[in-house]
């Protein structure tokens, strides 16, 4: 992920969202040389999670933030 830009990660996320939409309506979807169908729903969800995190992480880095989405509470 270190070599990706936020825009590239967003493009990948958009592709996987389109894939999820297609297979949720019973259609097949192709990304590169891979054809995905309803049976691949778990893989698609995994990819969606990965790319959402990538976009969030890269956006946070662009803002100069470290460890996006992580908060540490102090209970003193």
Short note summarizing the structure:
The chain is mostly helical and 76 residues long. The chain has 2 helices and 2 strands.
What share of residues is helical?
Answer: 40-55%
Question: What letter string, H or E per element, gives the SSE order?
Answer: HEEH
| Sheet of most strands | 2 strands, antiparallel
Which overall shape is indicated by the principal axes computed on the Cα atoms? elongated
**Beta-sheet strand percentage?**
5-15%
Question: Largest beta sheet: what is the strand line-up?
Answer: 1-2
Q: Would you tell me the structural class of the helices and strands?
A: mainly alpha
List the domain count as a whole number: 1
State the end-to-end CA separation: 37 Å
């Amino acid at each position: 992920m270190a070599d990706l830009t936020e825009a590239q990660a967003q493009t990948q996320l958009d592709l996987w969202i389109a894939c999820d939409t297609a297979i949720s309506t019973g259609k097949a979807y192709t990304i590169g040389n891979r054809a995905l169908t309803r049976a691949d729903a778990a893989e698609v969800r995994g990819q969606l999670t990965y790319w959402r995190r990538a976009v969030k992480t890269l956006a946070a880095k662009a803002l100069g933030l470290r460890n996006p989405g992580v908060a540490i509470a102090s209970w003193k």
